[in-house]
């Protein structure tokens, strides 16, 4: 992930007067890159098990659940459904559901 994105996010969440060392920026960049790699790898495995070539949002949410990032799955699902509903070009009729493992826990 480009350093400019990392710095932009950090500036949004930190107080205006906060200083961010170069080492902190690099460390966060490495962590974010590894997180994206792990989630993408898990989503790819999910898609592969279902004989799909592209990775779909449902694969990402299933991957997040598989990696036990359960606190992020529901907000991600809600966001994705709202995102699709805002633009008719984005298959708004397709609603993402929670992964099977999470549906039983949510009820």
UniProtKB/TrEMBL annotation:
<dbReference type="Pfam" id="PF00808">
    <property type="entry name" value="CBFD_NFYB_HMF"/>
</dbReference>
<dbReference type="InterPro" id="IPR009072">
    <property type="entry name" value="Histone-fold"/>
</dbReference>
<feature type="domain" description="Transcription factor CBF/NF-Y/archaeal histone">
    <location>
        <begin position="1"/>
        <end position="61"/>
    </location>
</feature>
<keyword id="KW-0804">Transcription</keyword>
<dbReference type="GO" id="GO:0001228">
    <property type="term" value="F:DNA-binding transcription activator activity, RNA polymerase II-specific"/>
</dbReference>
<dbReference type="GO" id="GO:0006357">
    <property type="term" value="P:regulation of transcription by RNA polymerase II"/>
</dbReference>
<keyword id="KW-0805">Transcription regulation</keyword>
<dbReference type="GO" id="GO:0000981">
    <property type="term" value="F:DNA-binding transcription factor activity, RNA polymerase II-specific"/>
</dbReference>
<dbReference type="InterPro" id="IPR003958">
    <property type="entry name" value="CBFA_NFYB_domain"/>
</dbReference>
<dbReference type="GO" id="GO:0046982">
    <property type="term" value="F:protein heterodimerization activity"/>
</dbReference>
<protein>
    <recommendedName>
        <fullName>Transcription factor CBF/NF-Y/archaeal histone domain-containing protein</fullName>
    </recommendedName>
</protein>
<dbReference type="GO" id="GO:0016602">
    <property type="term" value="C:CCAAT-binding factor complex"/>
</dbReference>
<dbReference type="InterPro" id="IPR027113">
    <property type="entry name" value="Transc_fact_NFYB/HAP3"/>
</dbReference>
<comment type="similarity">
    <text>Belongs to the NFYB/HAP3 subunit family.</text>
</comment>
